[in-house]
Amino acid sequence: MNFDYQIAVIGGGSGGLTVAAGAASFGASVALIERKAELGGDCLHYGCMPSKALIQSAKEVYEAAHYSSFTSEEYDRLFRQAMERVAAAVQDVQEHDSKERFIKLGIDLYEAEAAFKDEHTLIVGDKTITAKRFVIATGSSPIVPPINGLDTVDYLTNETIFSLRERPESLAVVGGGIIGIELSQAMARLGVEVTIIEGGDEILSKEDQEIVRTAHDLLSQELSVLTRAKVDRVDKKPQGLTVYYTKDGAEGSIDAERILVAAGRNANVDALELQNAGVKVTRGSVEVDATLRTTSRHIYAVGDCNGSMPFTHVAGLEGKVAVSNAVLGLSKKVSYEKVPWVVYTSPEIYHLGLTETEAQEKYGDHLLTFKTMLRNNDRFMAERHKEGLVKVMTNQRGKIVGAHAIGEGAGEWMQEVGTLQALNKKFQSLSNVVHPYPARNNVVSQTADLYWREKLFDSSLNKAISWYVQTFR
Ligand SMILES: Cc1cc2nc3c(=O)[nH]c(=O)nc-3n(C[C@H](O)[C@H](O)[C@H](O)COP(=O)(O)OP(=O)(O)OC[C@H]3O[C@@H](n4cnc5c(N)ncnc54)[C@H](O)[C@@H]3O)c2cc1C
Ligand SMILES: NC(=O)c1ccc[n+]([C@@H]2O[C@H](COP(=O)([O-])OP(=O)(O)OC[C@H]3O[C@@H](n4cnc5c(N)ncnc54)[C@H](O)[C@@H]3O)[C@@H](O)[C@H]2O)c1
C-alpha cells in the first residue's frame, strides 16, 4: 500500500519537533500537524520559557527591593515590564522554532487539528492524509477541578497568566505542585499577595521530605501556604472573588482579586479519535510500552500525552527514542532512572532518582546517605545564602540511587551528580576531581568526601594506617 508519508507527527511541541526534525534528517518523508498558529507547544508559549523569564524578572525585583522599597505604582510598572520581557523572550525562541526552519528540512506542515479516521489515515482540517507510521505528541492541558463557582470567575491557568499586563493586588493559587509553586513565588516577588491552597499533606509532593520542609519554610517568608486545604467553592464579588475552603475540619475563606488553577495536567487525547486507530488510553494518557509503541504497533506516543514524566527534556529524550524505533526500525527502550528535574524556585530544587524515603524502602540498611548543609560551605556562607542542603544516596559501593538539593543555583551545580550517575561512575570518584575554590559545586565534592570519611573511619585499613604513622613516621 502507498502512503502519502512515511511518518506523520501530531503536535508541534518539544516532543513532536524533535521527532519531525530527526525523522527528516534520516531522509524520511514527514508530515507535521499542529493545531495552533505557531510551533513550539506548551514549553515555549505557556510553560518553561515564559515561566523562566518571569522568574528571572521577579528575582531582580525582589533583590532590588532589599535596597529600596517600592510603592504600589512602582510595582504596577515593574509588573508590566516583567510581562513585556516575558513576551520578548518567547518571541526570541519562537524565531528559532519557526515554521520556515522545519519547511527547510523538507517537512510538510499542516495547521489544523488532527483526528484518526482509521489506522493509517488522519483527518486534518478539510484534508485527509495517510502515513505508514505515526507519532502522537499532543502534550497536555491544565486540569480544571470541578469547584463550585469556579466557572463564574475569570480564572487563570498557565495558558492565560502570561497575558496579564495589570498587576493583581492578590492571587489565590489552587495547587502546590511545581507550576503552582514557581508561579506563586514569581508573582509574590512582583508585589502580588499570594495564597497557595494545596489539597495534599505538603506542597511539591514528589520531592524529598527534608527538601520540602526547607522549601516550605523559605516560601512562607514570601507568601501564604495552606496545606491539607480543600477548596469548596468560589464566589464572584464586585471586586475579585472569595475562595471557601476546609482545612483540618474547619472552614475558612480568603479574598483575592484573581485565582490561578495549577491543579495538574490532562493528556490531550480527546480530539484524536484514537479508537479509530486501535490506540488504547489508560488513566487518561496514551498507553505505551518501553519502546514508546502504543497498542497499535505502527503508532508511537511521546511527551506529556503518554503520562510518563511531563518535562521538556523527557519529551526530547522520548522523541529521540521514537525516531530510532519508528524511523530506523530499532527497538530501543526508554529509561527514566537517570532523568533529573529542577524546580526553579529561589532557591532552586534539584531532583534525581529516589527520595530518601523511597531509597530506604528499597535498600534498607544497605543505603548510605551523605548530607551537607549549605551553612557549612564557604561560598554559601560568603553569599549569605546559607539555607539549604545537599543529599546524595548510594549503595554500599557508591552507586548513586538518589540525589537532591535545595540551594541557590542548585539546578546547575548539582548536575555534576547527574552526570556522574549517567556515566556509571561512583559518587566517591568526585573526591578526586579538583574543584575551583570557592565555586558552589565545592559543596558537592565536600559531600563526596563524606563517603571516604564514613568508609575509612573505624575501618581496619584506617587502624593499620594509624599504626604505621605512629610506629614508623
Ligand atoms: C508553567 C509551566 C512551566 C514548565 N516548566 C518546565 C521546565 O522548566 N522544564 C521542563 O522540563 N518542563 C517544564 N514544563 C513542562 C513542559 O512544558 C512539557 O513537559 C512539554 O511542553 C511537553 O512537550 P510535548 O511535546 O509533550 O507537548 P507540547 O509542547 O504541549 O506540544 C503539544 C502540541 O500538540 C498540539 N496538539 C494537541 N492536540 C493536537 C491535535 N489533535 N492536532 C494537532 N495538534 C495538536 C498542541 O497545540 C501543542 O502545540 C512546564 C509546563 C508548564 C505548564
Ligand atoms: N521546572 C520544571 O521542570 C517544571 C515546571 C512546571 C511544570 N513542570 C511539569 O508540569 C507538571 C504539572 O505541574 P502541576 O503543578 O500542574 O501538577 P502537579 O500534579 O505536580 O501538582 C498539582 C498539585 O495540585 C494539587 N491539587 C489538585 N487539585 C486540587 C484541588 N482541587 N485543591 C487543592 N489542591 C489541588 C495536587 O495535590 C498537587 O499537589 C509537573 O509535574 C512537571 O512535570 C515542570
UniProtKB/TrEMBL annotation:
Taxonomic source organism: Halobacillus mangrovi
Write out the transmembrane intervals: none
Binding site residues for FAD: 52, 138-140, 304
Q: How is the cofactor bound?
A: Binds 1 FAD per subunit.
The name of this protein is Pyridine nucleotide-disulfide oxidoreductase
GO MF term (any one): oxidoreductase activity, acting on a sulfur group of donors, NAD(P) as acceptor
Task: Give binding positions for NAD(+).
Answer: 175-182, 198, 264
Q: Which InterPro entries match?
A: FAD/NAD-bd_sf (IPR036188), FAD/NAD-binding_dom (IPR023753), FAD/NAD-linked_Rdtase_dimer_sf (IPR016156), Pyr_nuc-diS_OxRdtase (IPR001100), Pyr_nucl-diS_OxRdtase_dimer (IPR004099), Pyr_OxRdtase_I_AS (IPR012999)
Instruction: Tell me its family.
Output: Belongs to the class-I pyridine nucleotide-disulfide oxidoreductase family.
Q: Species lineage, top-down?
A: Bacteria, Bacillati, Bacillota, Bacilli, Bacillales
Location of the FAD/NAD(P)-binding domain: 5-319
